[in-house]
Structures are given as C-alpha cells and as structure tokens.
Amino acid sequence: VTTKTVNMNQIKGSPYFDESFKQGEIEYFGETLKENIFLRFNAFSDEMEMSPNPLAESTENILIKNNKVSCSIEGETYRYLGYIADNQPPAVGYLKELFKGNVLALYERKAKVYMEATQARTSLERSFPARFVDKTEYYYSINNGSLLQVKLSKKKLISVLKPYSASIKTFLENQDSKLKSLEEVIQLFSFLDQV
User: Fold this and answer.
1) Nearest residue to 26 (alpha-carbon basis) of 79, 74, 72, 61
2) Please, which residues have CB within 8 angstroms of residue 103's CB and are 6 or more apart in sequence?
3) Are 72 and 25 in contact (CB under 8 A)?
4) Are 147 and 140 in contact (CB under 8 A)?
C-alpha cells in the first residue's frame, strides 16, 4: 500500500468556507464555557479548530467530536450528529442548525471534497488541477428521529413531509411561497412545527 502526501499549497481552493477565526461559544455537556475562544470550521477534515487568538493562521487545537458538545460561530450553531445521506451508510459529522423546533428540525451540512488532478487524455478534454469542491446537503428530522437527507425542492419536501400535506398546502397558499429559497423552507418548517 502506498500513501501519497498532498501538498496543500498545490491544491486549488481552501479547506475552509471562511479561513478566519471568529468569536465562538462552546456548550460542553450542557454547560456554556466562559472562555474567550475563536473558532473556524475545517470543512475538509470536518473539524472545529480553536484558537485563543483571532489572528492565528493555524492551530493544533480542535473541538472534541461528541454529540453533547456543540458550538456557535457568530450566532450559527453547529452540532456533531449522526445523519443518513441518500444511498450511503449512516455517518456522523458537523451540521449547521437551520431550524430546531419541538417536532421538526432542519440542518445544513457543508463539506469540501478533495478532487485529484486530472490530465487531459485528448485535445477534446480539459485538465484540472487538484482542488477542493464545495458540497452542500440538507437533513431533516421529525420527532427527534434520524436525520435524513432531503433535497430542497417543493416536490421532495411535500413527499418527505406527507403527514403535514394539508398544512403545507395552507402555508403555500397563505404565504404565496414557491419554496424556492432556503429562507422559505425554514419558514415552512417553523409553520409546520406550530401546527
């Protein structure tokens, strides 16, 4: 077995959606830590990096991966949870909480996927450098059940939220919504959670 080391400087793009450390807050087993901490999400390694200095360029400190430990970065909450992607075995990772109600929840999972460099074999093909590719998925749960992947289309949402079909119809009529934006989907979840 040969292992190939990858030089990060030769990869196009970044393993971060935001490379700077931002003011953060950590909830550790139900208790909010009082420390002044700065965090950034490494979307390639799926780790929360921590630093006492917001100007740091790198750090060796990462937040423990546990479902009882969550963090907020500038008001956005990240939780380490199990989820089930379409046609994939169950997995765990960081998901951003978009909506958490009494019955329904909606999460976003953003990742950076490493793609190896490819050389064009003919003049009709293009060469690509090694690069990071953005990947965004959405997950929902009902009654604290499993987090299941869902595409944010009107048809898919109506399909997975079948028990709420009458309420969804009411929401779409009253809000004049086409469920085209993430904000409209969050409003739908909020509406259905109160039904």
Assistant:
1) 72
2) 142, 143, 192, 193
3) yes
4) yes
- Residue 14 in contact with residue 132, Cβ under 8 Å? yes
In angstroms, the first-to-last Cα distance of the chain is 56
DSSP state of 156: H
State the pLDDT at residue 3.
43
Q: How far apart are CA 138 and CA 152, in angstroms?
A: 7
**Residue 154, Cβ neighbours under 10 Å: how many?**
16
Q: Mean of the per-residue pLDDT values for the chain?
A: 92
The identity of residue 102, as a single letter, is: N
Q: What's the average model confidence in pLDDT over 172-190?
A: 91
Q: Are 177 and 170 in contact (CB under 8 A)?
A: no
Tokens 């509406």, located at residue: 191
pTM value > 0.90: no
Q: Residue 51's CB: how many other CB atoms inside 10 A?
A: 18
SS3 171: helix
